[in-house]
Please model this.
Amino acid sequence: MDAIVTAGGIPVEGEPLYEFTQGRPKALLDIGGKPMIQWVLDALDSAETIDRVVVIGLTEESGLTGEKVKAYIPDRGEMIDNIRAGVEKVIELNPQAGHVLAASSDIPGITPEIVNWVVNTSMQTDEDLYYCVVPRSAMEGRFPNSRRSYVHLKDIEACGGDMNIIRTSLVQGDDSFWRKLVATRKNALKQAALIGYGTLILLLFRMITMDQAVKRVTRRLNLTGRAVVCPYAEVAMDVDKPHQLEIMRQDLAGSTH
Model:
């Protein structure tokens, strides 16, 4: 499978990580002596399930390495545009590509083993979309001070991961609803409201299970999908705030994975 890594975004004054980036891309933040995104590229490079990698938002002059990195393309601004551009580049490089692994550049804790687990577990079925979720118990057991927000469902409390799989054909057609969904990705209640207020009420009262939520979302989006319950907290340990940056700097200090 091929992969895309979204690395766009330069924090501006007033945003949480601006004091650390000072006008430079967030993806290039130093963690353990190398750019944050390099940890992600290293994991993909060593994962036997990954064939090629496309980086969106940086250039070849960024000083990154990776034998599987076949292209760098410019930041398109919006996340949905970056994902679309990345998938289109993958199809250009590999017209036979059926699914693509999409990872963000700010999950430096992932390892080749985690990448392989996500790909192999997902590909046990043939869906349009696979969305990784990490149970609260796994997240807080691994990173107790991460301060992640969780969706409270009838059968699970979980947070969303930043490494997912999509069918390449999904980049075609109307994407207005996708844009709204991506814009609310950090707020489960707003996402539920987009799907329907009946779903929102069920979510508020914790009367809906993970499978029921997936069925409602995929029906609304007119696609097939599956939530992949991932035991690896690293998939959801994204660096958005200073305390998360410090957690990962301490966690990866001296690591060579």
About this structure: DSSP finds ten helices and eleven strands in the chain. The chain has a mean pLDDT of 89. The radius of gyration is 18 Å. The chain has one domain: 2-250.
